[in-house]
Amino acid sequence: MARELTVAIAGLGAIGLHLARALDAGVEGLRLVAVSARDQDKARANLAGFRSQPALVGLAELAQADVVVEAAPAAVFEEVAVAAIEAGRIFVPSSVGALLPRMHLVERARATGARIIVPTGALLGLDAVRAAAEGEVASVTIETRKPPRGLVGAPYLDQHKIDVTSITTPTLIFKGNAFDAAQGFPANVNVAAALALAGIGPERTTVQIWADTTVTRNTHTIRVEAASARLTMTIENVPSEENPRTGKITPLSILACLRGLTSTLKVGS
Ligand SMILES: NC(=O)C1=CN([C@@H]2O[C@H](COP(=O)(O)OP(=O)(O)OC[C@H]3O[C@@H](n4cnc5c(N)ncnc54)[C@H](O)[C@@H]3O)[C@@H](O)[C@H]2O)C=CC1
Ligand SMILES: O=C([O-])CC(=O)C(=O)O
Fold first, then answer.
1. 167-196 mean pLDDT
2. For the segment 74-100, what is each residue's pLDDT rounded down to a tens digit?
3. Could you report the per-residue pLDDT of 236-248, keeping only the tens digit for each?
4. For a substitution probing ligand 2, which of 188, 212, 222 has the most ligand atoms within 8 Å of its CB?
5. Same domain, yes or no: 229 and 165
6. 190 labelled ligand-binding
7. N or C, which terminus of the chain has less Cβ within 10 Å?
8. How far does residue 71's CA lie from ligand 1's centre (Å)?
9. Which atom in ligand 2 lies closest to the alpha carbon of residue 235?
10. Is 267 inside any structural domain?
11. Residue 61 has what DSSP assignment?
């Protein structure tokens, strides 16, 4: 008997709307049943052509589904996460940076039977990082280069009075650990948070963020020095039209992650 999971999505932006459309088009074993949006009229317009109408509900009500995907601003992460975890659901966060200061949610999930599944998102190679982290790892670093406009609005820039729009040459904006990077750039370094969780934790994972006038893509390079292997991997993400901070691959990665929840053949660990 094929297994079917119902899915709910918080947020219908660059990630959520693409994912909702893909699920509505039909993915074996997954059925979109509910979505949540800030702008209800816009959401209704976006959903108008769907083959099957998901319910438009409040954030906490998303927990009616087996799988709750968070694709909303980090500010509402907790509301979505707590409802899903308390209901014992599978919680799939996009705003992974918001999970780092809330690791108590993992303990709650253990108690309620919920699972928290962090997708690879805009990054690559977390399978290899996880494998390496089963053994000894000396260092994990990530270098993120974004067109300056992709960094606009980050709290770190306001705090340090950095105007990225006036930058004319590639400039190192931040160097520190993944925990501090996630606080300072909540809409930009979810990839660093996911890397930290896959590998050696947010304190030991080193992050560099560059405002780079020479790149048109959100570019992430991971370097891992481990007893088993040395990894160097780069992904160059095409920014999405809706939100230049978010690479187009992100909803695709989450879709691939969701498929893996029910598929008979699953590739990659
Ligand atoms: N894990 C990863 O690799 C990546 C994670 N992200 C993160 O994923 C999250 C979503 O990213 P995008 O889709 O690009 O953002 P977006 O800004 O395009 O979409 C977010 C949507 O959430 C909606 N929203 C806002 N408040 C809401 C509320 N109270 N209830 C319901 N909906 C609400 C907005 O109206 C918007 O449509 C962000 O936190 C972003 O930083 C983005 C890229 C990669
Ligand atoms: O590269 C991207 O598409 C988005 C990104 O950096 C992130 O959210 O961490």
1. 95
2. 999 999 999 999 999 999 999 999 999
3. 999 999 998 899 9
4. 188
5. yes
6. yes
7. N
8. 4
9. 1
10. no
11. G
Tens-place pLDDT, residues 18-58: 999 999 999 999 999 999 999 999 999 999 999 999 999 99
Q: Complex ipTM above 0.85?
A: yes
β-pair partners for 189:
none
Residue 158 neighbours by CB under 8 Å, 6+ apart: none
234: CA distance to ligand 1 center in Å? 24
**148 and 205 fall within a common domain:** yes
Contacts for 173 with CB less than 8 Å, ≥ 6 apart: 151, 156, 157, 162, 164, 209, 210, 211
The reply to whether 243 falls in a domain is: no
CATH assignment of the domain containing 88: 3.40.50.720
- How many structural domains does the chain have? 2
Instruction: List C-alpha distances in Å: 129 to 19, 35, 132, 135, 192.
Output: 26, 32, 5, 10, 12
Pairing of strands 137-146, 218-226: antiparallel
